[in-house]
Each structure stands twice: as structure tokens, then as C-alpha cells.
Design a protein that fits this description.
The protein is mainly alpha-helical. It is built from six helices and six strands. It binds zinc ion.
Length: 191
């Protein structure tokens, strides 16, 4: 049954991995958390395991996701941050309980409030978005060069010149399109 759902696109940055649960926003959008169960799965692989998720909590998550996307997009192009998006991000950040804890091996883990609620997990994601949009972390917010994607991503490359949100998908597709355009041109010149 699970195989019917689109795969997750997990990056190294929590906030933009979360906004990437909806891809191709400017084309044929792909919803990667179509059901509450899929959000539970995504949270589990992202180190934020929760016990359960309701339809209303999934709605809350998607609202946060789109607010993060709007705010990150504005930040990437140096536009003023949209006030409604900022309010949603802040509300989610405030209305959850989570604590960073150290494992014996020295890794950081998130410990959610007692019931491991979705709201607690969303507060961690919202706080991650805050730190990125506020420019606190080493990297640069940018928009994917693929016209059907234009996802906001966090560029941590040394040169800060990454063009695509994901090399394996958008980057590859773009390269292939260029290659095919080149082939067409070449075959045209032969005639
Ligand atoms: Zn992209």
C-alpha cells in the first residue's frame, strides 16, 4: 500500500526537507504527504516520531509548510516577509513543546512533549525555518532554477552557487532537457 505514495525528498536541512513534501509547485504539483499516515512516516524518518496524526493536524502541517515556503521565497529574493506567513510560523513555533537532548554518543535528538504530538514536531520544524530565514545559519536561501519547481532551498555549498533544489531530480532533468535540445539542434544542422 505504501508504495503507492510518492517518495520523500529528504535533504540535510529539516525546514526545506519539509517544504519539499510538496514539489513542482509551478508545474504538476506532487503532494508527498497526502494522508495523515504519510505525515507520521515523514516525521519518523526526520527524527520527530509521533504516535498519531489526525486530518486536522495534517492541515496544520500543510499550512505551516506553505507559510514556510512563502517566507523562505520572499527571503531568497530579498522581498519583505509576508505577515500572514510569519504569523503562522511563529504560532507553530510557540504552540509546541520539544527539547534538544544529547545521546550518550554525543548526537542531538529531539524529545517531543509527553504525548509526542504533531504540534510538538511542527514547533521544531517552524523553529528550524526561523533560524534559516533569520540568516542565523551558514548558507544562503535560493530558489530552484527549474521553472516548474522554483522551490526555496538552503545552499550550503562553498561557492553558494547551487542552482537546483536537488541535483538528482531538478538538476538532472534540466541537464537532460539541455542535452536533448542540443541533440535536436545537431540533427537539424545535418539536414
Ligand atoms: Zn527544484
Amino acid at each position: 500500500m505504501r508504495a503507492e505514495f510518492p517518495d520523500f525528498r529528504l535533504g540535510t536541512v529539516l525546514a526545506t526537507s519539509f517544504t519539499a513534501t510538496l514539489t513542482e509547485r509551478r508545474g504538476d504539483a506532487v503532494e508527498r504527504i497526502p494522508t495523515p499516515r504519510r505525515l507520521v512516516d515523514w516525521l519518523a524518518v526526520s527524527g520527530l516520531a509521533v504516535d498519531s496524526c489526525t486530518a486536522a493536524q495534517l492541515e496544520l502541517a500543510r499550512e505551516l509548510r506553505e507559510a514556510m515556503h512563502a517566507a523562505a521565497t520572499a527571503a531568497a529574493v530579498a522581498d519583505p516577509l509576508p505577515a500572514p506567513a510569519v504569523r503562522i510560523i511563529n504560532d507553530r513555533s510557540i504552540q509546541g513543546r520539544a527539547a534538544a537532548v544529547l545521546t550518550p554518543e554525543g548526537d542531538r535528538r529531539w524529545r517531543l512533549g509527553s504525548a509526542s504530538r504533531v504540534e510538538d514536531a511542527l514547533s521544531v520544524i517552524a523553529a528550524d525555518a526561523v533560524s534559516i530565514i533569520a540568516g542565523e545559519r551558514d548558507g544562503r536561501l535560493a530558489l530552484c532554477a527549474s521553472p516548474t519547481c522554483q522551490a526555496a532551498f538552503f545552499d550550503t555549498s562553498q561557492s553558494r552557487t547551487r542552482k537546483w533544489c536537488d541535483m538528482n531530480t531538478c538538476g538532472n532533468r534540466q541537464k537532460k532537457a539541455r542535452f536533448q535540445a542540443g541533440q535536436r539542434k545537431n540533427s537539424g544542422s545535418v539536414k
